[in-house]
Specification:
Blueprint lengths: L4 H27 L7 H32 L9 H21 L3 H25 L8 H28 L4 H31 L8 H17 L11 H28 L1 H5 L3 H23 L3 H9 L1 H26 L7 H29 L7 H23 L10
Helix pairs in contact: 1-2, 1-14, 2-3, 2-4, 2-6, 2-12, 3-4, 4-5, 5-6, 6-12, 7-8, 8-10, 10-12, 12-13, 13-14
Length: 410
């Protein structure tokens, strides 16, 4: 029995709509007087639901889809309980973080989602054994699931802090950054790369560097974590390893881009204009992200980056919105997992414009914060952009929910 991928991906878009709506609400509270709801609770609800209800749910679903396309008579239906459990946990976190912040029930749902991720990792790694060993996506998926599992170690320490009330600021922040790093630089990034390698059907025999880039990014992922801790004044030897890790990722990425363009030029040129623009923007965003990471190893730059919240917000949105979220939309659209219409394409286009505007204004705000320069009406502008993002994904979601009579569900 196959998993009804199109059905579960509709939840993905609905969840992204909710994430965008919470973003609008948070931006409104920042820019205007709005006494209702706690901003901190909104932030926790927004971030937890974005990670679990949008990104992780979508990754799980399309990774199962990938196995169903590569393994004959694959039983994707056995994942249904895991997907349902993840959604229950996601909606639980959405509601209870919204109303109570870090409370007993919200922590309960958050903890349950961790064990759901373990169940998915265990089952998926078992099923990966059925894949052809020449398919490079296999290794990326294994690494993604590994990083997802080890990222949860950070949450255990946070739970320990909550239980014992032994709060140490540096260790607390280190645990938070540990979880975030191995989520978006590990689980999210490696899963997306696995999907991309799978989409282009890249094999070990295509080019030797296709296997090398995986090894380089996997090894570098560990020391790159310490980029988040440069404010702790790390030992010189650890700082050097961190710089090497960031440099290796930059080298690996740009060499991969060069080889990919040379070897898969025809496949890339055959993409529709909208998908080409999305993929181009993702490539630029990821290039900027890796260069920013390398630049942050300069002590003066690092101190500035961690000292100004707009820079941190801009970086997180660059990774989660401009790279991860856009790639998931690219993948589902490129594989025809939504019923494609001109109106749906228009919605995706509006969302893309919103992402570009959002990153541009956040970048300007971040750079201006170096000189303590205030950007006139920046909060109103960001609120307007948040509405554009919400409208774009709302249009996309509405027209994706229409039944596809020509193409039955997978």
């Amino acid at each position: 029995m196959k998993l009804n991928v199109k059905f579960w991906l509709k939840f993905s878009l609905i969840n992204l709509c909710i994430v965008a709506l919470l973003g609008v609400l948070m931006r409104y509270k920042i820019g205007f007087a709005f006494p209702y709801f706690e901003q901190k609770n909104l932030q926790h609800s927004h971030s937890h639901f974005a990670f679990s209800g949008w990104v992780s749910h979508t990754l799980m679903t399309v990774m199962i889809y990938y196995l169903q396309t590569k393994i004959e008579a694959f039983n994707g239906g056995k994942y249904k309980k895991i997907i349902v459990a993840n959604l229950i946990c996601s909606y639980g976190m959405l509601v209870f973080f919204f109303f109570q912040g870090y409370g007993v029930i919200s922590i309960l749902f958050s903890t349950a989602s961790v064990f759901v991720s373990y169940a998915f990792a265990y089952q998926f790694i078992k099923d990966l054994k059925l894949l052809n060993t020449d398919l490079l996506s296999k290794n990326w998926f294994k690494a993604a699931l590994f990083f997802n599992v080890i990222s949860t170690l950070g949450t255990y320490y946070l739970a320990y802090i909550m239980a014992t009330k032994k709060f140490v600021q540096d260790i607390y922040l280190s645990s938070v950054y540990y979880y975030l790093h191995f989520q978006y630089n590990g689980w999210f990034f490696f899963a997306c790369m696995g999907l991309f390698f799978g989409y282009l059907n890249l094999k070990k025999t295509d080019h030797p560097f296709f296997e090398t880039i995986f090894k380089l990014f996997t090894i570098a992922c560990f020391p790159v974590y310490f980029l988040s801790l440069l404010w702790l004044n790390l030992p010189v030897w650890l700082y050097v390893i961190t710089v090497i890790g960031a440099s290796v990722q930059v080298f690996a990425w740009f060499k991969f881009l060069y080889i990919l363009i040379q070897s898969k030029k025809i496949e890339l040129l055959n993409l529709t204009p909208l998908l080409s623009y999305i993929l181009l923007f993702i490539s630029i965003a990821l290039s900027i992200k890796l260069l920013l990471q390398l630049g942050s190893t300069i002590p003066y730059v690092s101190q500035l980056a961690f000292g100004f919240r707009p820079i941190v917000v801009a970086y997180l949105h660059l990774v989660l919105l401009a790279i991860i979220s856009l790639y998931l939309i690219f993948y589902t659209k490129a594989n025809h997992l939504f019923f494609s219409t001109k109106k749906l394409k228009f919605g995706i286009f509006i969302f893309l414009i919103g992402v570009i505007l959002n990153e541009t204004i956040l970048a300007i705000q971040g750079i201006a914060s170096f000189s303590y320069t205030a950007i006139p009406y920046v909060n109103s502008i960001l609120f307007s952009i948040a509405i554009i993002l919400f409208v774009g994904i709302l249009i996309t979601t509405y027209f994706s929910l229409k039944k596809d009579k020509k193409n039955p569900p997978l």
